[in-house]
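A quick aside before the break. I want you to see a complete sequence-to-structure record at least once, exactly as it would be stored in a machine-readable document. Don't worry about memorizing anything.
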Amino acid sequence: MRGIAHDVTEQRRSEKLLREASEGLLDKVRESERTIRELKLFRTLVDQTNDAIEVVDPETMRFLDVNEKACSELGYSREELLSMGVFDIDPAVTDSSIKTTLEELGKSGTLVMESIYRRKDGIAFPVEVSMRRVRLERDYIIAIIRDLTERKLAEARLQASQDRYREVFDRSPVGICWVETKTGRLLMVNPKYCEILGRTEQDLLSRNFQSITHPDDLAVNLDKLRRLAEGEFRHFEMEKRYLRPDGSVRWAEIEVAAMWRRLEPQFGTWP
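That is the input. The structure line, written in tokens, reads:
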């Protein structure tokens, strides 16, 4: 019998190394694919958020990344915004304000402020800017921007409504006051009410209604207020006597209505 032997040790070692390299490469490919999927998911979530998001270079204040909401609100494409900086969209930003902002971020790491942004078409709108300083391989500023236009309009409408109410309140030909039901403390009085009581607004707001009510009427008034606070009724009418500083008594017809908050009466009005 005759045999021939070949040493294949290196071949086997090479095959093993090649197999391990292939498996390692395959694992890296799978890991890269998983990372890509996660990044795509993260990018999609960031782009679909209701708030604008900006990543800013704290050294140059230029945009490093923005989401779709930021683009749509400002009217620029992502490519345009990535060639711009905060100075280009916020006319209120100055070198001094940037320095102050960076100092605040350096101390607390976060900062919330209001400012004005300017769209590509030149229209300005109010925003709330919530910033956080993030440290990775370098420093970044992550800013979440919320358009405050609707809130500011609502606040303006509310203020206008309050101004109209205050004008009617002050000009009313009948006395009006707000009373805290739990304590009887006077919270707000109009000029006519002050005239009826013969007292100043400052004096009345330091008192409760018990101190200006005739002693003979006090028990009935307190009972009515208690029943009002307990929700037994929301409205009643009656006559009562007020005590003036000079000792005189002023009769008045009053109409009381409960103002409800969280299903409990908080205040009563005493015209």
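Two observations worth writing down. Residues 26 and 155 are 59 Å apart (CA to CA). The mean pLDDT is 84. We'll return to this after the break.
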